[in-house]
Design a protein that fits this description.
about 725 residues, nucleotide-binding, binds adenosine-5'-diphosphate, 3 domains, homoserine kinase activity, 7-stranded mixed β-sheet, Ribosomal Protein S5, domain 2, binds the ligand N[C@@H](CCOP(=O)(O)O)C(=O)O, 60s Ribosomal Protein L30, Chain: A, sterol metabolism
Length: about 725
């Protein structure tokens, strides 16, 4: 039996000066699971069974003619000559939107009701017509337009003909079957006029997040409208219109301008009159400014209150904690939520529930693992893997194992095989935050193939492992696109992988990834590092990194958080990109240049600078008798590292034990081969620095001289 899932976003209306005009859909959703069993009769009134979980569950009526959601559905059905729900309709509501707090719970309920009628009555209503029905009930268009269409919207109501105006102004009790009115009331309720309201969507800057401070008491919107005057002075109207015109554009600009937005969010039309309903309102609104709380853009009452909406780009906890403590002075307890714009409005989707007999016999899918999604993914990524074919491997996937013909790959004599396995650590978290999944696969390949190539091995094949809670074919396919991209850069064929759906292990929307590369070294060629060839006085060459690469991200995220930055904020060290975009820069893959140099016998050893930074990785390529001595003045430290070092107050030694500091690879080359090695590497696009030399080992295995240059600005 199919279940229809209707998801309606919450909304914040007015945003200061836009009383009854602007609405902002937010990513906190009312969900209705709707099932019609198609049996002959039902024992429930109007054939409708309601179950409810969520805010105020104990006080929400569970009778079809009383509950706002089903009453609305009934009104729409009756306008179409359908008196009751089809037997038996089960409406299961999951509602995290707090009721009566100014977050559009009633608008969400009304929109859900209209959608339910559209589904069970097969009415095929357009969204514009649904808006008419919604407006027969919620007479202000701001919340319902946002809930229905999503985004940041501006709305107006049309001037209607006198008859239509009369219809629209019919009191609610005459429109809807009144709770106590029984089955015959509202038999022929008034149809809504056509095109009661219009809306448009404004841009919304992706940096802006919505801090909602939700006091633990209700203010009914109806009551909060009763306190408003019937007319206003021209001065007050002009005050609001001036701000409103600026605000709708200012909130779409990137980066948003706090100075402009803070003033543009002020209001003289509703907030001053509602302060009697919300203790301390005026003082609380005035208690924060962009100067006192950097990151804040503006503050206002959300809808009719009592929720306070603070728009901000950073410092969310500090702003929220301050506002919660202001309410505390009035002895009011609050919750708070950090919400974001819900771009999409109401969505309707279907899922097939197991039939009653099948409910007994469980399926793999019922436990949360979808074989079909896995198959869809394999289809989606076939083209990517095919793009990685190379001599010896056809880049096809789907077999039990991935094959590679060594002879066809150019290894006539049995070679030395080298294997590497690695992950990308918590860099994936930034991919989740940015909803950008096509580059972390490159990082995964880089971490493995860079480890192979430092031994002198040519990467030949790669296999990846992607584990998640629920498979998003789209995200996983993007991830594999990145893996294939990395494979192409390093000449390895992507011969297989594993996608694991493990409900309960990972958080929704998150995943982890690992990968394994196999490479080969021709028999007779040096396996690196070549300890016996290394000598005091050998030169250390460094190759520039592309940024943080894939290590140290737990520390990076901590520093970003400590500085109150979000991943969508402009990077303080790179004004052209956001923090997240900059940090997602893929790890550089050094395979082709390093193979070119090592195959010419120009390199004695190479160190891939990963977790452990310079200090821990360089000694891994050295014999016990030799140590590395680097001069920190010899290579430029990228701006991202300068910022991280200062923002995290990192000690020099900690800095070079955690990060690559600008060098992704360090090579040992004899003095006479430095020029040739440098030329070959530069021809392959590398930036090469002479960063130090090998010295006799005493106590330290790696010393970096002149680290104080890292602290000069
Ligand atoms: N999901 C729901 N189911 C039933 N009734 C609801 C639901 N959501 C809202 N309501 C009704 O709407 C009232 C709140 O509406 P309103 O005063 O406009 O506040 P809000 O700012 O939350 O929209 C609730 O007290 C309740 O009667
Ligand atoms: N423009 C309306 C908005 C009411 O929003 P709600 O979320 O409190 O229902 C008003 O200010 O009255």
């Amino acid at each position: 039996m199919p279940t229809t899932v209707i998801k309606v976003p919450s909304s914040s209306a007015n945003i200061g000066p836009g009383f009854d005009v602007i609405g902002l859909a937010l990513n906190l959703y009312l969900e209705v699971q709707l099932t019609v069993t198609k049996q002959d009769a039902s024992t429930y009134p109007l054939n409708c069974r309601i179950t409810y979980e969520g805010d105020n569950a104990s006080s929400v009526p569970l009778v079809a003619q009383d509950n706002l959601i089903t009453r609305t559905a009934l009104y729409v059905l009756r306008c179409h000559g359908i008196r009751a729900f089809p037997p038996e309709t089960h409406v299961h509501v999951i509602n995290p939107i707090p009721l009566g707090r100014g977050l559009g719970s009633s608008a969400a309920a009304v929109v859900a009701g209209v959608q339910i009628a559209n589904e069970v009555g097969n009415l095929q209503l357009s969204k514009a017509r649904m808006l008419d029905y919604c407006l027969m009930e919620e007479r202000h268009p701001d919340n319902v337009a946002a809930a229905l269409y999503g985004g940041f919207v501006g709305t107006y109501l049309n001037e209607l003909s006198p008859e239509d105006t009369e219809r629209l102004e019919i009191p609610l009790s005459e429109v809807l079957p009144e709770p106590a009115g029984g089955v015959d009331t509202g038999l022929q309720p008034p149809q809504p006029p056509q095109n009661i309201g219009h809306y448009t969507k404004f841009n919304w800057s992706p940096e802006i997040k919505c801090i909602c401070i939700i006091p633990q008491f209700e203010v009914s919107t109806a009551k909060a409208r009763e306190v408003l005057p019937d007319s206003y002075s021209r001065k007050d109207i002009v005050f609001n219109m001036q701000r409103l015109a600026v605000l709708t554009t200012a909130l779409g600009q990137s980066p948003p301008d706090p100075g402009m937005i803070y003033t543009a969010m002020q209001d003289k039309i509703h907030q001053p009159y509602r302060r009697g309903l919300i203790p301390g309102l005026t003082e609380i609104l005035q208690s924060v400014t962009p100067e006192s709380h950097p990151g804040l853009l503006g503050i206002c009452l959300s809808g009719a209150g009592p929720t306070i909406l603070a728009l901000a780009t950073a410092n969310f906890d500090a702003i929220a904690n301050h506002l919660v403590s202001q309410f505390k002075k009035e002895e009011i307890t609050c919750d708070w939520k950090l919400l974001e714009l819900a771009k999409e409005g109401t969505t309707v989707s279907q899922f097939q529930q197991p039939t009653p007999q099948l409910e007994e016999s469980m399926t793999y899918a019922s436990s949360g693992v979808s074989i079909d999604a896995g198959n869809d993914l394999v289809k989606a990524i076939k083209a990517y893997t095919a793009g990685t074919r190379r001599p010896g491997a056809d880049g096809k996937i789907g077999g039990f194992g991935g094959l590679l013909d060594l002879e066809a790959a150019g290894y006539k004599e049995s070679p030395i095989l080298v294997g590497a396995i690695d992950g990308i650590g918590t860099k994936v978290k930034i991919a989740f935050e940015m909803d950008k999944h096509d580059t972390v696969g490159i990082d995964l390949v880089a971490m493995n193939v860079n480890d192979l190539v430092v031994q002198g091995a040519e990467p030949l094949m790669f296999l990846d492992y992607y584990a998640c809670s629920k498979l998003s074919v789209q995200n996983a396919a993007k991830f594999v696109e990145g893996v294939a991209n990395g494979c192409k850069q390093s000449g390895a064929a992507l011969v297989g992988g594993e996608t694991a759906e493990m409900p309960g292990i990972y958080k929704d929307g998150e995943y982890d990834a690992g990968g394994c590369a196999i490479g080969a070294i021709k028999r007779g060629t040096a396996i690196l590092p070549d300890f016996s060839a290394m000598a005091e006085g050998d030169v250390l060459l460094g190759l520039a990194s592309s940024g943080v690469h894939s290590n140290g991200f737990s520390l990076v995220r901590k520093i970003i958080e400590k500085k109150g930055l979000g991943f969508h904020d402009t990077a303080p060290w790179d004004q052209s990109r956001t923090v997240g975009e900059n940090l997602l820069t893929p790890t550089r893959i050094y395979v082709k240049p390093l193979l070119a140099a090592s195959r010419k016998g120009l390199v004695k050893g190479m160190a891939h600078i990963t977790g452990g930074g310079l200090s821990e990785n360089i000694p891994r390529m050295l014999p016990d008798t030799l140590a590395a001595e680097l001069d920190a003045r010899a290579w430029p430290v990228p701006d991202v590292f300068k910022w991280l070092k200062e923002a995290g107050r990192l000690e020099d030694s900690e800095f070079c034990r955690t990060f690559n500091t600008g060098l992704g690879m360090v090579l040992v080359v004899s003095e006479e081969k430095v020029r040739q090695a440098t030329e070959i590497l530069q021809e392959h696009g590398e930036q090469v620095y002479r960063v130090g030399s090998l010295v006799k080992r005493t106590a330290e295995d790696c010393t970096v001289l002149n680290m104080d240059v890292w602290n000069l600005r």
